[in-house]
């Protein structure tokens, strides 16, 4: 086994033994989800996020690809895709259980993916923190983990009650 493979396994085991919930995407050790709570001493406190992590073949020499599954208001995270700014990952990469809280505790508004969040953070810190808390309330509750908003709405549309009522409407009239 090569050194990068051993390092990948070791880092993943440390992550799994920490307070984070880790869910493997497949049998390999290169793709997984991590559920984590916002740090207590930040406006992200009370929020729970799921991120998707993809470790490259060259890990640990090359940093992973990290993306938030549920929305977060953060200068270094693209609001639509959930991607984390590569410069931030590359500059501050450390083991995942250290990196995730650091990302939320120390946003870098000078290298933003979310320009609105960065501008608000620099212009009006209390308003920025209020927006973060609103996003936590709306998108980062434990029940938001594991299903993207689109998946939830399609699940609601396919609920048994809706399905039965649409069946009755279709079956109610015969062709002439």
What keywords describe this structure?
disordered C terminus; 4 strands; globular; 176 residues; alpha+beta; four-stranded antiparallel sheet
Could you characterize what this model shows?
The chain is α+β, with helices and mostly antiparallel strands and about 180 residues long. It contains seven helices and four strands, in the order H-E-E-E-E-H-H-H-H-H-H. The protein has helices at about 5-15, 85-90, 95-105, 115-125, 125-140, 150-155, 160-170, and strands spanning about 20-25, 30-35, 50-55, 65-70. Helix 4 (about 115-125) crosses helix 5 (about 125-140). The longest helix has 15 residues, at about 5-15.
Could you give the topology of this structure?
Elements: H1 3-17, E1 21-24, E2 31-37, E3 48-54, E4 65-68, H2 86-92, H3 96-105, H4 115-123, H5 125-139, H6 149-157, H7 160-171
Antiparallel strand pairs: 1-2, 2-3, 3-4
Outline of the structure:
The chain is built from seven helices and four strands, in the order αββββαααααα. The protein has 176 residues and is of the alpha+beta class.
